[in-house]
Amino acid sequence: MEYVNLRDRLNFPATLRNRDSIASALSRYIPDRGVILEIASGSGEHAVFFQKRYPSIIWQTSDPQVLHRKSIISWIAHHGLFSMMPQPLDIDVEKRPWPITNELRSLIKGIVCINMIHISPWSCTKALFEESKTFLHQNHFLLLYGPFFRMNNEIPESNLKFDKSLRSQNKLWGLRYLERVNDIAFENGFELDKIIEMPSNNLSVIYRLN
Ligand SMILES: C[S@@+](CC[C@H](N)C(=O)[O-])C[C@H]1O[C@@H](n2cnc3c(N)ncnc32)[C@H](O)[C@@H]1O
After folding, report:
1. Which of 29, 156, 166, 190 has the fewest Cβ atoms nearer than 10 Å?
2. pLDDT (tens digit, 9 = 90+) per residue, 120-148?
């Protein structure tokens, strides 16, 4: 085990506000055992919370940023979860194939991706579905969480503002239309299982592989 610095822990304030509602949305999808792969784990605060909430499964984190992976390791250490949680993987959804061993592939039962698709180019959303379908099996789930635009729905002012600020940081970022994300999901063999309205104008959107 490499040296772990507990000061590497990052705090993403939103995780404290949304972790309970995401955990509830996840509850009917968590299998009895197996691995849930989290893409874009960020600080790792969600991961340790979900691992504690669902101790019968293994929460496998990942993130392409070194600072985030250090933070994840540090949160795992802080909660004394090293015996349960593996080290985070360096997964950039666009660098394919993802670095996942055959053994891990055979254990993955679902994928969770929180607050990534609007803070990355659209090509990342496509890559997420294209790569996920290569190792999920029938009925396995992919959960997306975040703010979305929806056709024929009034857009909340807060989401419009958030979209504007994202686009001012990077013109390839921005809130996605749920219907366009669904199209990508369907093209890759997923079906829409459930849309759950979440606090602060966010959604949990759960797909299952056909
Ligand atoms: C807003 S943060 C969300 C982190 C965490 N899921 C949360 O909700 O606190 C966005 C995350 O997406 C990750 N990310 C950005 N581009 C990515 C890519 N191409 N592949 C995988 N993750 C990516 C970033 O490293 C960052 O951790």
Report:
1. 156
2. 999 999 999 999 999 899 999 999 999 99
